Amino acid sequence: MKTRPGQKRWTRDQDSENSKASFPELFFDLVFVFALIQLSHTLADDFTSATVGEAFLLILAIWWLWINTTWVTNLLDPDSVPVRSMLFALMFASILMAIALPEAFGEHALAFAIIYAAIQVGRSVFAWLAFRGEDEETAMTFLRVTLWALATGGLWVAGAFLGFEARLVTWAAAIALEYAGPLVRYWVPGLGSARRETLILSGEHLAERCALFVIICLGETILTTGRNTVEHMDADLTFPVFGSAFASTVAMWWIYFHKGQEEAAEKAERTSRPEAVAHNLFTYGHLPIVAGIILTAVGQDFSLSHAEEDATLKTASVVIGGPALFLCGNIWVKLAAANRLPLSHLAGLIALALLLAVFSYVSTYTLSFGATASLLIASTWDYAVVRWPLSRNAGP
Fold first, then answer.
1. What does the pLDDT profile of the chain (396 residues) look like in tens digits?
2. Which DSSP string corresponds to 74-128?
3. Do residues 311 and 366 lie in contact, with contact meaning Cβ atoms separated by under 8 Å?
4. Is 188 helix (H, G, I), strand (E, B) or coil?
């Protein structure tokens, strides 16, 4: 990248030291603890088929907001005053969005839509301005991103004025277009598509940032479980269910961090196609992992509040669906990163499928214990498979 004499760079130097996550970025992430707690509470309080559709769309929106900000801070220097100021402005807007999130499909629909669209457009405009005069090709990429954000933002705002069904359809179309943008390289009439591999990315930075977001999601699970445990201390099964919930959270941590996260970081750092690999591993590959953790937290909430009740399809959809989605996401990432199909994860999915077949005959707490056991099977097996060659090579 070229810099004019005397110009203050806002862009990140692509060296090993500066590829680490910065304190401003970690500060920015704190907002999403609040947003995820808001989303989990909304799901747990009123879980219906309509709420599932709303929640899935909101998970997509929250992830898209965060991952796109991470891409921008991957390219810009968060320690520069303008970039820090941009992050603080995004933090404030994100807090307001999180406040509106429980009523995003109700009375706060317009506020949610305007704030979400403003964040997406404002961040892209900032990145475009940051690269103007320094890297025109990257600047043109962010100009295309800005135009897409304006178009989809219009759909978000327009949907806020519609009835529930029409709003759901309009917002689903908006989020679908947003997720399609990178796949068509933000094609714009008259400008065409961005050239492949134009952004100078740090794969190590993206891998670390996504790993930290997974930690945030797991931390939110512990916070939610702890709060619900306090509220149900008088029930006989509260402590066993809490222990099971904690064990499942530890198992998810182990499944993700024991080997897969390291493989993803190495793949992203060493590849000759950083953009394509980053999109596959992080932009899209981590979405089911994050969604699975959020749904697992909701399932743990159900297990604590309705432990002795018979399991229902609603309960099974989150108690089993969350871990299943999490395992599928890890399979995707490990296949993409190391061309490794983890049989342990398939075993966990088979155990969850068997549990789904008998859910109507068991209680909610039994279902929760079974889901935890499936995750423990996957984590223990994966550890043994990955560890064995190391032990064998190390000798007695």
1. 444 444 446 777 655 455 677 888 888 888 888 888 888 877 777 666 556 778 889 999 999 999 999 999 999 988 889 999 999 999 999 999 999 988 888 899 999 999 999 999 999 999 999 998 888 899 999 999 999 999 999 999 999 999 988 999 999 999 999 999 999 999 999 889 988 888 888 888 899 999 999 999 999 889 888 888 888 777 778 889 899 999 999 999 999 998 888 888 888 888 888 889 999 999 999 999 999 999 999 888 888 887 778 888 888 888 999 999 999 999 999 999 988 889 999 999 999 999 999 988 888 889 999 999 999 999 999 888 766 654 444 333
2. HHB-TTSHHHHHHHHHHHHHHHHHHHHGGGTTTTTHHHHHHHHHHHHHHHHHHHH
3. yes
4. strand
Distance CA 91, CA 33 (A): 12
Kind plus residue range of the DSSP H or E element containing 334: helix 321-338
In three-state secondary structure terms, 37 is helix
Contact between residue 62 and residue 70 where contact means Cβ atoms under 8 Å apart = no
Whole-model pTM? 0.90
The residue among 383, 388, 60 whose CA lies nearest residue 253 is 383
Instruction: Say which residue the tokens 């004025």 belong to.
Output: 161
d(CA 130, CA 144): 15
Give the three-state DSSP class for 6. coil
Taking CB atoms within 8 Å and a gap of at least 24, the contacts of 165-173 are 167/105, 167/109, 168/53, 168/54, 168/57, 168/105, 171/57, 171/113, 172/57
